[in-house]
Design goal:
Helix 2 crosses helix 4 and helix 2 packs across helix 6. The longest helix is centred in the N-terminal third of the chain and has 29 residues. This protein has 6 helices and no strands. The two termini are 24 Å apart. The protein is mostly helical. The chain has one domain.
Length: 183
């Protein structure tokens, strides 16, 4: 191991070939299931986000009663209420929340692509600048498509993203498992 590298070196954990292959196949199958019924997948993602927000609400509410600085109590209470309301909306009305969240997501992707375009032109003398510009253009197109087809995209976009993510993550694990040595 080279100790002169500025990048910290982390030990690589032992890989179980069988679990990597099985997990990869399971993720790919779940990804195709998510793509098969994007409406149900979107509702599941929205509900999951709601439960995460409720956990955040509980965490901040606990902080209200455990911190000693009274100036921070109001802040934690307000954040707790915001998390609680957002969590309730995501759980009670997953499609309405998904539609609103998808609009936010579309704008975030579009604006991120615009910023990356400026960044690509700023670093135009670097060999990899074209890849940054390529990804920026894809983000601008994707964000524009999400926004232009909104609110309809809100009913399936989260499920679509979930399915694609599961498939590509599963392919990565499957490839890692298949390329590792048998033990």
């Amino acid at each position: 191991m080279d100790n002169t590298s500025p990048i910290p070196q982390f030990p690589v954990p032992q890989l179980s070939r069988g679990w990597a292959i099985a997990g990869g196949i399971a993720m790919i199958l779940l990804g195709f299931f998510a793509l098969g019924d994007q409406l149900v997948s979107t509702a599941a993602v929205a509900t999951f986000i709601g439960f995460i927000l409720m956990f955040g609400c509980a965490f901040h509410l606990i902080k209200v009663f455990t911190i000693g600085d009274w100036k921070s109590h109001l802040w934690y209470a307000l954040v707790s209420v915001a998390y609680g309301v957002a969590g309730y909306v995501f759980i009670a009305h997953p499609f309405k929340a998904a539609i609103a969240f998808t609009l936010f997501l579309g704008w975030a992707i579009l604006i991120g692509g615009i910023f990356r375009t400026f960044f690509a032109f700023k670093m135009r003398h670097h060999r990899g600048a074209a890849w940054v510009l390529f990804s920026a253009v894809i983000s601008i197109i994707l964000g524009g498509l999400i926004i232009s087809q909104w609110p309809a995209t809100g009913l399936y976009m989260l499920g679509l993203f979930l399915g694609i993510e599961l498939i590509f993550a599963g392919v990565g694990w499957l490839g890692l498992g298949l390329s590792s040595e048998k033990k």
